[in-house]
Amino acid sequence: MYPLFVYDDALEPGIALNPSIASMPGCNRLTVEGVVREAGEALDVGVHQFVCFPKTPDVLKTRLGEESANPNGLAQRCIRALKEAYGDAVYVYTDVALDPYSTDGHDGIVDDARGVVMNDETVAMLCAQAVSQAEAGCDCVAPSDMMDGRVGAIRGALDAAGFHHVGIMSYCAKYASAFYGPFRDALDSAPASANGVVRAVPRDKRTYQMDPANAREALRELRLDEAEGADVVMVKPGMPYLDVIRMLRENTALPVAAYHVSGEYAMLKAAANQGWIDEKAVVLEALTCFKRAGADIILTYYAKEAATWLRDMQT
Ligand code: PBG
Predict the structure, then answer these.
(1) Residues 6+ apart with CB under 8 A from 256
(2) pLDDT tens figures, 39-49
(3) Is 174 tagged catalytic?
(4) Residue-wise pLDDT tens digits, 259-273
């Protein structure tokens, strides 16, 4: 599965001058048309699954993140464009979380007085976001926010709106990891990055993402997500968490996805660009190891490149 970053060229025309992401060489922020083009190239080498992450300009960020559920928001337009261009040839996932839309840079809504992320208020907003993405035509929503009870609530909201056929890929075991740094650079979405530092806001996501030292909590998250109706369960980050992938694989009949995250990509690219590793060999080995650990689906910024290498090896 190929994750793509999308920006709004009407609202942020400056990005066109420098769409690259310093910490993710080879990945660019793309316009909606750019996403459609990139997806077309990926389709040509056999990648059919995509997930789009919108970069929201500061002017559209709010404390509650209402832009997340705008039927004409960037994510929703991107879903529609992919489906209009390729129909059922593409399987489109979405990101359900508030961080791209939040002045506080959090996946949930921060309580003004106490400076904590509020679970249930957030879940209500996530349900509205997921329904708007389903209306735009996505195949599967993917909540990455880690609020408690959100999978069941989103399932209920989708069903009530007539979207029984839209799946849920849950970020099931998502750890509070420092490997997400380059992703937050790409979207300018780090905690407290845009709020002018007027309010008290948690500096990290440790109250809702998981403790990297805790393996068994992944099993508890798995049981909850299965009971709430998840269709796919994900582990994130990837390579440092292969033990968790294996544990989920052995404890569920659901497909297990693994996210080879931005910091992992950055490390491989940096070493490759220095000539210190054989990029193609190392990346294909890394992806093979995800499969060995039990991943059925791999989200990787290398998707198009790796698929191209694999195709060339077969011909
Ligand atoms: C946020 C989100 C993050 C990623 C995907 N969705 C960052 C975070 O939790 O802070 C990270 C992906 C990556 O690092 O490649 N909802």
Answers:
(1) 232, 233, 234, 235, 245, 248, 249, 294, 295, 296, 297
(2) 999 999 999 99
(3) yes
(4) 999 999 999 999 999
